[in-house]
Specification:
Blueprint lengths: L1 H25 L2 H22 L5 H24 L5 H19 L7
Helix pairs in contact: 1-2, 1-3, 3-4
């Protein structure tokens, strides 16, 4: 459970860091860049804790896939970015891939 929580918090930090990147580009370059560097660093640190028990390929796929899904949805609300049918299809493929990876992960996370 600990390693799954580390992966969850790694995803949260990665999403926040990526959103900070967009904030940096539009509003305050220094604050946004500093926040992005710190949050992405925290994300990688937490991911390194998660892969102590979760296979690297599985953890990375979940980290990146869920991150892309969340960033797509959040940027629609925060930055008025359009979610096109192509984006929905692409994110759907990512979610399908995550489901396939997780059904065949074959590990214990305790």
């Amino acid at each position: 459970m600990y390693h799954s929580m580390m992966l969850f918090f790694a995803i949260v930090a990665e999403v926040a860091g990526t959103i900070s990147m967009r904030y940096s580009a539009e509003n305050n370059p220094i604050t946004g860049t500093v926040a992005m560097i710190i949050l992405i660093g925290i994300s990688y640190f937490l991911l390194s804790k998660a892969i102590q028990k979760i296979p690297l390929g599985v953890a990375y796929a979940i980290w990146e896939g869920v991150g892309i899904l969340l960033i797509t949805v959040i940027s629609n609300y925060l930055f008025d970015e359009m979610i096109t049918s192509a984006k929905v299809f692409g994110v759907g493929l990512i979610v399908a891939g995550l489901i396939f990876i997780n059904t065949d992960e074959g590990h214990d996370d305790e």
